[in-house]
Automatic annotation (TrEMBL), chains A, B:
Keywords: Aminoacyl-tRNA synthetase, ATP-binding, Ligase, Nucleotide-binding, Protein biosynthesis
Gene Ontology annotations for the cellular component aspect, listed alphabetically: cytosol; mitochondrion
Keyword check for NAD: no
The enzyme's E.C. designation: 6.1.1.21
PROSITE patterns per the UniProt record, alphabetical: AA_TRNA_LIGASE_II
Name of the protein described by the UniProt record: histidine--tRNA ligase
Record-listed L-histidine binding positions: 100-102, 127, 143, 147, 296, 300-301
A single GO molecular function term of this UniProt record: ATP binding
Gene: Hars_0
Aminoacyl-transfer RNA synthetases class-II family profile domain location: 31-363
GO terms, biological process: histidyl-tRNA aminoacylation; mitochondrial translation
Top EC class for this record: ligase
Length: 475, 475
């Protein structure tokens, strides 16, 4: 038997090699996807909602290259730097694909000495992460960023960023959501009063950041076991990070005997109170939760931080709504631009990033469930013929329509059957058919067929453009 | 002296090292650029014209990842393959940045077994070329591609591609242009009857492709000297490649004693005649030139090829209009999809690519010359206050406006001066100011100021949204 198995294995190995020779691997790179016409239609709907919101708030738009000098990205992302895609050294500069849109934005500001701008930027970013594509986690994915740079009175731009998240998530009708808010200064103050040594602030902050995925017990043992924090300090942190609420919690912490003695915490809490006042004027505090467990992974935040999560639908048997993941996040980063300036001149910034891929996944799943038929073209009319030998007449007519700005198609056949032409309209949702025939040509008319009702009317050739416009106007 | 020089050089070297330590290189990678708000406004104008044209012709839209498996790109670009950007091997798949949108499109068709689609794709592509940025040549640049895939009657989709180029270049008002047309089959037939050995077709074709940049004499010496072609064959090619014209030239070549005996040339000329008939129906032959010197660099073309060039303006002292470079190109590639199919099943394709960067350069230069002031936001109204302590009222009002879909801004100051607020409108082109003050609040009105005329009217708060809409509607 062993001999037989060996023989079979050898045959299999040979087969494998042969296959390898002839079989071309036909796929997109790991963690990436194509967008076909249907997916693009959904994507463009979502982008439209997001861009209108950014424009409603008076943002300009910029774009930067897909790669940056490697050194531009170095030292900005902490532990996540290992996820950066580098380009091969083919001579010349060392380059990396952008990891987010925030660092390129800061580089752009410093390079052009811009101290004051409100801009949005929608583009793909790249992370060599473990993809989980069914849940909308990719290695190539879009970010939709809105940022306000400049020296302003406290919390006014910060409040606008939260208003924007609220508007976009409401507009896209993704279901219930909550926007968690915290402040790096409150976290730092909390770490200090809990007895965390200064040198461990960052790494303990990274541990806290995991609380949305793993239970406190695990985070605690990471703090104590891996990161060498005293059990007492960890327990004190544990008490704080379970707190979440609104203005009442802010007031409570402002009275907290330890926190109220810490300068940065007090600053952070004062600003948080101001933020909540502004959010009350915007009428959106119902969806905002001041949450001491929110930490955010990135190194560059210096003040307010926030993250929007969608809440699970249809879960009557669960006591609390379950979060299904973050769809937007951001915060204040007052030091990042200064890292690019030779003299370290700072430009305070606050911004938000909409994580559109998860939103796509939800919209796609919903569309599939709804059986709504989505059109992937905007064609208004198909130029068709009922008889043979009318290709030239079709070409002449379609050219007239294109030149008049009408969206028109025809089948690329010399003599297509009328049935096939009508079927094409049914399949693609084209609402009108302009039919040319011998008799119509003699009479100087075109037969216009309304696909939905099968009604047919003769339209004088010189009125055709106007007639199509009227019948397909969406006003 | 030698000693002094050595000392100075040493000092300089030390200085160089120190500089290297402190000076951060603040730039975008070689051959790339940022697009600021003004450039983006121009870019979006151009894209709008191009996208409307593609949609007018019934195209769907797709998107693919910015990188592909390295092997997907291998063997598709001939001599130009050396310009491909590879990613660093960080474990996992070997990847390259896309070089054009055509090969990813073919990969997409084969992978999804699509045999019939009309799609456009607008995205950045990457070439490690020598950049000439003032003339719009970059290493990262946009391509706007429209392609028709499927088995159809000859030259109907091909003619539509040329119509599209004609529409876009006319619409963008870039000045006079000519679209050169040729066919790879005519070139191959021409090479055959001139006595070029089969094995040298490709490399001689590459030489012919240089004729738009260097004179015939140079191309001839490359053919004979470097590529070992006989002088007689080269001279025969030289006679053909100076020919250009229209239907008359096609008829003449169909009578050519040598070419008319060559099967592929005859096929190509027959189709070229058909193409001109269709272009006549489209009314665009005035801008089309059948040009035997047009070869196009890429390997994958199999039939019709074309290239649009802008003609130099203001050159009365020159006899012939000078071309300032190609802004669009394309052709038929019937074999490319088959290269990705395990069974080699072919999907005939024809397409066009608009080279938008050169068009940007021209539009930018023109705008700079015209001193037209271009708006970079769409803000309709600035929410302002004439007195102090009205931040809360401004926040309340702007929130109402945003929620009603009005594009509104405010200054992020607690107590901004009215003059500064009005100045901001002048600078950014905001047409209206909604001013809140003590008296207005008591009266339940908002003072609406029209920036251009300095006129001010009191508007009841509940009519404000409607009033802003009417005053800023563009119908």
């Amino acid at each position: 038997i062993a001999k037989e198995v060996a023989k079979l294995l050898e045959m299999k190995a040979q087969l494998g090699t042969d296959e390898g020779k002839h079989k071309f691997v036909l796929k997109t790179p790991k963690g990436t996807r194509d967008f076909g016409p249907k997916e693009m239609a959904i994507r463009e709907r979502a982008f439209k909602a997001i861009i209108s919101c950014f424009k409603r708030h008076g943002a300009e738009v910029i774009d930067t290259p897909v790669f940056e000098l490697k050194e531009t990205l170095t030292g900005k992302y902490g532990e996540d730097s290992k996820l950066i895609y580098d380009l091969k050294d083919q001579g010349g500069e060392l380059l990396s694909l952008r990891y987010d849109l925030t660092v390129p934005f800061a580089r752009y500001l410093a390079m052009n000495k811009i101290t004051n701008i409100k801009r949005y930027h929608i583009a793909k970013v790249y992370r060599r992460d473990n993809p989980a594509m069914t849940r909308g986690r990719y290695r190539e994915f879009y970010q939709c960023d809105f940022d306000i740079a400049g020296q302003f009175d406290p919390m006014i731009p910060d409040a606008e960023c939260l208003k924007i998240v609220h508007e976009i998530l409401s507009d896209l009708q993704l279901g219930d959501f909550v926007i968690k808010v915290n402040d790096r200064r409150i976290l730092d103050g909390m770490f200090a009063v809990c007895g965390v040594p200064d040198s461990k602030f960052r790494t303990i902050c990274s541990s806290v950041d995991k609380l949305d995925k793993v239970p406190w017990e695990e985070v605690r043992s990471e703090m104590v076991g891996e990161k060498g924090l005293s059990p007492e300090a960890a327990d004190r942190i544990g008490e704080y990070v379970q707190l979440h609420g609104g203005l009442d919690l802010i007031e409570q912490l402002l009275q907290d005997p330890k926190l109220s003695q810490n300068k940065v915490a007090k600053e952070g809490l004062g600003d948080m109170k101001l933020l909540f006042e502004y959010l009350t004027l915007f009428g959106i505090t119902g969806k905002i939760s001041f949450d001491l467990s929110l930490a955010r992974g990135l190194d560059y935040y210096t003040g307010v931080i926030f993250e929007a999560v969608l809440l699970q639908q249809d879960n009557e048997h669960l006591e609390e709504p379950l979060s299904v993941g973050s769809v937007a996040g951001g915060g204040r980063y007052d030091g990042l631009v200064g890292m690019f300036d030779a003299k370290g001149r700072k430009v305070p910034c606050v911004g938000v990033s909409i994580g559109i891929e998860r939103i796509f996944s939800i919209l796609e799943q919903r569309l599939e469930a709804s059986e709504e038929k989505i059109r992937t073209t905007e064609t208004q009319v198909l130029v068709a013929s009922a008889q043979k030998k009318l290709l030239e007449e079709r070409l002449k007519l379609i050219s007239e329509l294109w030149d008049a700005g009408i969206k028109a198609e025809m089948l690329y056949k010399k003599n297509p059957k009328l049935l096939n032409q009508l079927q094409y309209c049914e399949e693609t949702g084209i609402p009108l058919v302009a039919i040319v025939g011998e008799q119509e040509l003699k009479d100087g008319v075109v037969k216009l067929r309304i696909v939905a009702t099968r009604e047919e009317v003769n339209v004088r050739r010189e009125s055709l453009v106007e007639e199509i416009r009227i019948r397909t106007s969406q006003c």
